[in-house]
Design brief:
Radius of gyration: 18 Å
Strand content: under 5%
Mean pLDDT: 77
Structural class: mainly alpha
Largest sheet: none
Distance between the termini: 27 Å
Number of helices: 5
Oligomer: single chain
Number of domains: 1
């Protein structure tokens, strides 16, 4: 029989999740105000910002449904390094090939 988690442990986990959501939301608000609005190549269009854009794809997509000036992909970018970072960022969020492999192995 497994021991039950204590109330303090559950409270700590809930507090941690709330803090992480707050940090993610704060970073997204900063990102949305400084990075997204550009329609020309900027210092925000290199590998590292491609990675950030890929990580924030879900909230950016939701925001783009309501604001027509927001896109989920920075089209005027530096090129292949931005694209590579963007794909890596999306893989971080959606699990990449590991997520696909673990889903298919559960069916057996």
């Amino acid at each position: 029989m497994k021991p039950k988690p204590s109330k303090t442990m559950i409270g700590s986990i809930i507090l941690f999740v709330i803090m992480m959501c707050g940090i993610f939301f704060g970073l997204f608000v900063w990102y949305a105000q400084t990075v997204i609005p550009h329609t020309y190549p900027t210092p925000y269009t290199n590998f590292w910002w491609g990675l950030v854009h890929g990580i924030f794809i879900v909230p950016t997509f939701i925001w783009s449904l309501f604001a027509h000036s927001i896109t989920i992909y920075q089209s005027p970018n530096i090129g292949n390094w931005y694209n590579f970072g963007y794909v890596i960022g999306i893989s971080i969020i959606f699990g990449g090939s590991h997520g696909a492999r673990s889903k298919s192995s559960n069916k057996k």
